[in-house]
Amino acid sequence: MANILKGKKIVLGITGSIAAYKACYIIRGLIKRGAEVQVVITPAGKEFITPITLSALTSKPVISEFFAQRDGTWNSHVDLGLWADAMLIAPATASTIGKMANGVADNMLITTYLSAKAPVFVAPAMDLDMYAHPSTQKNLDTLRSYGNHIIEPATGELASHLVGKG
């Protein structure tokens, strides 16, 4: 069987969820299968996992701002959106899902999403009541209507110690 990820360029969007640590496993899996991974992380995502960890795994600088802090270099969300063969947002918080559904372009991840020409995969990660809330479900339906692929969350123990889908 041919490896469909070999040589593919993947933008991995990481948001401010306790599930952000799982991005390390996603990165390792994608790279092991031959993909090139570029991480774009939201400001809240950096509260849960450090860019240093992610950069060490991808061998690439992590992008989180429009301008690089060290030298002021412009990080072009348009170029990044065109570069990608696929975009995966994992974990995707309710906030990020809402911004994606409504075009709220207030961070590098959302502007990259809005510029992407490649297939987009969204993996929601939040508490079960947040996930089940009608506004979250409406936003997910909107993303589906745009052609995005939603990766449904598994059922299990959540960070809140509740058990459910989220």
TrEMBL record:
<dbReference type="GO" id="GO:0071513">
    <property type="term" value="C:phosphopantothenoylcysteine decarboxylase complex"/>
</dbReference>
<dbReference type="InterPro" id="IPR003382">
    <property type="entry name" value="Flavoprotein"/>
</dbReference>
<feature type="domain" description="Flavoprotein">
    <location>
        <begin position="8"/>
        <end position="145"/>
    </location>
</feature>
<dbReference type="InterPro" id="IPR036551">
    <property type="entry name" value="Flavin_trans-like"/>
</dbReference>
<dbReference type="Pfam" id="PF02441">
    <property type="entry name" value="Flavoprotein"/>
</dbReference>
<dbReference type="GO" id="GO:0016874">
    <property type="term" value="F:ligase activity"/>
</dbReference>
<dbReference type="GO" id="GO:0015937">
    <property type="term" value="P:coenzyme A biosynthetic process"/>
</dbReference>
<keyword id="KW-0436">Ligase</keyword>
<dbReference type="GO" id="GO:0010181">
    <property type="term" value="F:FMN binding"/>
</dbReference>
<protein>
    <submittedName>
        <fullName>Phosphopantothenoylcysteine decarboxylase/phosphopantothenate-cysteine ligase</fullName>
    </submittedName>
</protein>
<dbReference type="GO" id="GO:0004633">
    <property type="term" value="F:phosphopantothenoylcysteine decarboxylase activity"/>
</dbReference>
